[in-house]
Amino acid sequence: MYRRIVTLLLSLAIALAMVIDAYLLFFKKQTSPTTNSTAASSHTTNSASSSTSTSSKFKDGTYTGKSVETEHGPVQLQMTVAGGKISKINVVVFPNGEQRSERINAQALPILQKEALAAQSAKIQQVSGATETSDGFKDSLQNAINQAQESETSS
């Protein structure tokens, strides 16, 4: 009798764990790929600030951000502005000295580029598992944005 009860309780615990795992897996898939809601909210914030100031409009040209040292190597970007908006972001330098870094950056950098283009800002979320690269990406992009804004205000 006790064996049946223990077996039943153990089976219920395993079933509950499977349900929770499936829920987390589903939930994680909803938020992990580039988090569209974050990009949208960043874009909304930028558009709101652009209506109150002209500093979010950039001068057309190509701007190279500073090289930012991270724990795994430097990150440096080049940003192209066309029509007052960021139209392209090229990663000039990124950590690639180790296979792990290459693998992580192969996934993270396209996500960061897509998010930054959507947000028209360096105010984007980090990519999980690529914290150092994400920070370096945002810092170098912000430097390039500052250059584009300075060029716009000095015109």
UniProtKB/TrEMBL annotation:
Disordered as annotated region, ranges: 33-75, 125-155
Pfam family, one: FMN_bind
Bias (Low complexity) ranges: 33-56
GO cellular component, one term: membrane
Domain FMN-binding positions: 70-148
InterPro entries given in the database record: FMN-bd
Gene Ontology terms for molecular function: FMN binding
Official protein name in the record: FMN-binding domain-containing protein
